[in-house]
Amino acid sequence: MTSSVPTSLRVVEGVAAHEGVDPVELEPPLHEVIDTDALDALFQSTGDSSATIEFTYRGKRVCVDDSGQVQVTEASSNAGGSTVAE
């Protein structure tokens, strides 16, 4: 992963972009839903990570792949629109 932006911040930005709102407007804050320190640590640049995580936040399906790319889709839809944060 080449991004120096923490994964948790990219998740917040991706969900906010998907919803068309300012990231500070998201309630509840991401840290009240998942352990953001653990999320960031999981995707820190180590060169050999093969982790992928998927969770639901604000009714959105958030998937972070082994490259650290964040994809946001509607949780109730398999074919809905998506937002990708890099």
UniProtKB/TrEMBL annotation:
Q: Where is the Halobacterial output domain?
A: 4-74
Q: Which Pfam families match?
A: HalOD1
Q: Which InterPro entries is this protein grouped with? A: HalOD1
Top-level taxon: Archaea
Q: Would you tell me the protein name for this molecule?
A: Halobacterial output domain-containing protein
In its UniProt entry, the species of origin is given as Natrinema versiforme
